[in-house]
Amino acid sequence: MRQAELYDVIVAPVITEKSTGASEHNQVVFKVADTATKPAIKEAIEGLFNVKVKAVNTLNRKGKVKRFKGIKGKQNDRKLAVVTLEEGHTIDVATGL
């Protein structure tokens, strides 16, 4: 993959309390494109961060319908990837690329 295509697969890191806790188990959570596949995510992570990926798990979250001051709205659908890294490899998502 070209460098620009790698950035199209990985949208953003997810920085929450739960994803920070997963980093203790050598896992990093990323928001990825809806059309991204597991092999494409693995290739993008290895290409961008120069690490070895052990496994990739994905989940699709459907957007919820919410109300704010009586106005009905819908949150966007999103796809997340939980990337497990090989021992000895780390990614510091707080510093960026």
What this model shows, in words?
The longest helix is centred in the middle third of the chain and has 12 residues, at 38-49. The radius of gyration is 15 Å and the shape is globular. The protein has a single domain (3-85), classed as RRM (RNA recognition motif) domain (Alpha-Beta Plaits, 2-Layer Sandwich). 15% of the residues are buried. It is built from three helices and six strands; from the N terminus they run αβαβαββββ. Helix 1 (3-9) packs across helix 3 (38-49). Strands 1-2-6-3 form a four-stranded antiparallel sheet. Strands 4-5 form a two-stranded antiparallel sheet. The mean pLDDT is 92. The two termini are 18 Å apart. It has 97 residues and is α+β, with helices and mostly antiparallel strands. The protein has helices at 3-9, 17-22, 38-49, and strands spanning 10-13, 27-32, 53-61, 65-68, 71-74, 78-85.
Short description:
With 97 residues, this protein is an alpha+beta fold.
Tags for this model:
single chain; alpha+beta; two-stranded antiparallel ribbon; 3 helices; globular
What shape does the CA trace take?
globular
Strand content is: 35-45%
- List the quaternary state of the chains: single chain
In percent, how helical is the residue content?
Answer: 25-40%
CATH class: Alpha Beta
Largest sheet: 4 strands, antiparallel
Corresponding CATH architecture:
2-Layer Sandwich
Q: What structural class do the secondary elements suggest? A: alpha+beta
Count the domains: 1
Radius of gyration equals 15 Å
> How far apart lie the N and C ends?
18 Å
CATH superfamily: RRM (RNA recognition motif) domain
Extract low-pLDDT stretches: none
